[in-house]
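SAMPLE LOG
Freezer: B-3
Tube label: C17
Construct: single chain, 118 aa
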Amino acid sequence: MTPFLDYYIFNGIPIPRPGRDSTLRQRVVELSGHLAAVDDRYEDWADEVGVDFGPLDEDEKQAKIHELDAVVAHLYGLSRENLQVIFETFHDNWDHEHRMNAVLEHYDEWAERLEYEE
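STRUCTURE (predicted):
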């Protein structure tokens, strides 16, 4: 086995490519950017990306992670049922119920918002 992954392998993995004006793309940038910019060392980068920086308390951090999961699910075109099956099927010795419910709540909010935008 080699420690390197071939580019050919990654070509087969479907990755959403939303346009720059996509509401979902913009929200992924906001959420992931703020989650990554944990302190003032990231101030310049956060300014460049256009996101806030600084520490988040654990509740804020988890809420952003849950919303990010939901937004990414929408980008991949997953239905609510698909997302629920993923949580119910692919967990290993951890209680997935709380996270699943939080993600599904964000998923539903985004589904409504996206329907309204159409």
